Every structure is written in C-alpha cells, then in structure tokens.
Amino acid sequence: MVLKLENVTKRFGEFTAVDDLSLEIPEGEMFGFLGANGAGKTTTFRMILGLMDASAGRITWNGKKIDYSTSPLIGYLPEERGLYPKLKVREQIVYLARLRGMKKQDALNELDYWLERFRVPEYADKKVEELSKGNQQKIQFIAAVIHKPKLIILDEPFSGLDPVNVEQLKESVIDLKEAGSSIVFSSHRMEHVEEMCEHLCIMQKGRPVVYGALKEIKRSFGRKNLTIHADFDLSELKNFEGVTSARKSTEGITLQVTGESVAEELLKAIIGKGFIRKFELEEPSLNDIFIEKAGASYE
Predict the structure, then answer these.
(1) Does the pLDDT of residue 134 top 80, yes or no?
(2) pTM assigned to the model
C-alpha cells in the first residue's frame, strides 16, 4: 500500500502552491512533512485525500486513485478544528465512525478505549465547546483514528498542546504505526519529525528542498556538530581548519566540522590547556540541514 505522488502541481490562478512534487511514502512507516506556513503541506494533504484536484501529475495509493471507496481506510486530522461544538463527544464520534462504516457498538468500545488512554473518560458526555483546545485536539485525533485506518494523515497534530499531551499523542501515533498503519504528518517542530520519522520531505515554496530517508539525509550532509564546554577561551577554534561555522554559548562553543578527523585534531589542540567539561560529537540536526539547503533558519 505505497502512497505515490508523481509530478504533482497545484496552481491557484497565477500562484503555484505545490510545484512538481514527486515522492513515495512506504507502507507501515511514519513520514514527516516539514515547511514553514505557505510551503504547500496542507495543499498536498488535501490533494492526497481527493478534497482538491491536482492541476497536473497523479496521486495513487496501492496503484489506485483515492476516492470515496477508499474513505473507510483513511483517517485525517486537519490542522483547523472540524468538530461540531454543540454535540456531545460520544454522539459526535459515533456519528463520524458510522460514516466510516463502523457499527455503533464497535465505535463506542473504541471510544471508551481512547478516552481511557487519554485519561479523560468523563468527557464522553461533554459538549465539544466545553473542552479546552488541547482536549478538543484529542477528540479530533480520536475521530481520525477510531476506525483503524491503514493510512493516517495528521496535519500539525501537536500544535497547541502542552508537553504532557504532546507525549500522549506521540505515543499513540507510534503505536498506530506499529500496528501497521502508514502515517504522514506535518509539523512545525523539527525535533518531532527527527524523533519519529524514517523518511521526510522538507518543502519550501511548494518544492521539496530535502527528501529521503532521515539517516541518509544526515549522512550525505557530511558535517557534524561538535560541542565543547571548557574553563578556558575557545573562540579561536572557529578559525581551525575543517570548521565551517561556530556558535558561542555561555558554557562554551558549538562547531560544525567537516568530519570526525577534524574533531580528533581539535581535541589534540586543546588538551592540556585547562579543564574540558564536555566534548561531544553529534549528527547534524534537521535545522542545520534546513539552513544549509533552504538558506534560512526554520521556525
């Protein structure tokens, strides 16, 4: 059940929201979409779901077009709230689950499971408008996944949530993936994608600037981050051969270096100068890669 986008373009008059996008989202994996507002993420999701027609290109899932016949197999969490504020949670979830082909009792059983899991069983008989934004997001998430879809599309699922709720939702998403669902989600937060996704696409102005397996993206970047904390001045290290950038902090310095051998030479150069509290070599972050590829910091 591979989701495939081939040369997909979406134009609104003179404006091109998505520009010749081609990618494959493997079955049973978590795929991350990153990009600033206006990068084309939501438009891409709407085209995948068939809510919007592409101006050019084709989108297939398991070799077929997505339409009403595939609807029971897909779950969608939109970025904007889409629940009926006056309806009680139980009525609403059962109604939406029935639209997806579920039996009423099955829907009620699943709802009980999810409300218990999110530690809010008392919300079943509350109206949506009585809930906080974070709890509305949980109910909307339940609505997207209650019918155990094979393909789940989550648009900014963690936005507006406090850290405890983010962790709850993240665990749920990982469990759904491990149960066999393919999950595509967008986020403003690079660390969420970095932590959860095997493959990703960073979009800018409708085009992919980075696409592929996270491990390969980091490996091909060819640079690493070296953090040094010491009780002596490290500012001269920015001029060391093989250092491509430097960022000072109150505790020391973080250098971007072209490889492990540079780190080794740096260590030789500073040993004996004083006390070194930290000397840590890490893979580049997605933010480093975005700055390099897109020429801007990612917020």
Answers:
(1) yes
(2) 0.83
